[in-house]
Model the fold of this input.
Amino acid sequence: MREIDGAGLVLDDALLQSTEPVIIRSLVSHWPLVRAGLESSQAADAYLRRFYQDATVVAMLGAPDIDGRFFYNQDLGGFNFRPVHVKLDTVLGELEARRNDARPPAIYVGSTTVDTCLPGLRAENDIGLGERDALMSVWIGNKTRIAAHYDLPDNLACVAVGHRRFTLFPPDQLSNLYVGPLDYTPAGQAISLVDFAQPDFGRFPKFATALEHAQVAELGPGDAIFIPSMWWHHVEALDPFNVLVNYWWRQSPEYMDTPTNALMHAIMSVRDLPPAQRKAWQELFRHYVFEAGEDTAAHIEPGARRILSPLDADATRALRAQLLKRMNR
Done:
């Protein structure tokens, strides 16, 4: 994995459009939040509370025996934690109260919009991303383990307080990661069923191959990592109090739908066709989607190409309405 010095670095398009992960050391070491965390967890807690305005967040709470691993229950029919709506200052208080416990309960507030829960924090702790309209989120908790998953947006993750270990896999390792259900997940994204702390190679033998392609990065306060879209990543928070701030953005227009919906629809409508028909549809998808180019519709007059022309917001809106109408018949 490429590693660069981020002190004083101005992030450019070459980095922010990379298709490989990049470690950026000391990118946000100048943030007041980072400096407070280096002083103590109590100082970081006090700094966060400066911006707290009675916001409620969703916290994930797990018993001590899950060892910080938020996951399914034994039969994958439920989860080993419970989500609760709670005031952020209550979470911070519980993290401080449990800081010296040998086996504390797992406490985790994930992917919470900064401007909503800590208004004003971004004014003092931010980085330039050019013209990207990035969503800034905060992640707060104790020693936790988040199962390997992918995200559609590109992701710049900045460690503000504590240390985190990232284990990344390229998208082509999907079949070696033993991914669980697509439509019933702990936090929205499908996850690997492998326990990275104790891999069961008898049950998941191909995970050994995935590990051959793994890229591991341990980040401290002020460090950041760029995770490209669709890269699988397993994240471990290593300290009793951890704060991560990340930025999400897509390289595609906002009006484009998420490809996850297309995948779900294809499972519903294509996957269980007879093999010959499924192969025919594979060719259609290759031609119109995966290898589409200027020649795909060159034989059709430009004014008659309709959805075979490049889509804009209006055309996408019309197509979505047409699809909804068809599906609701």
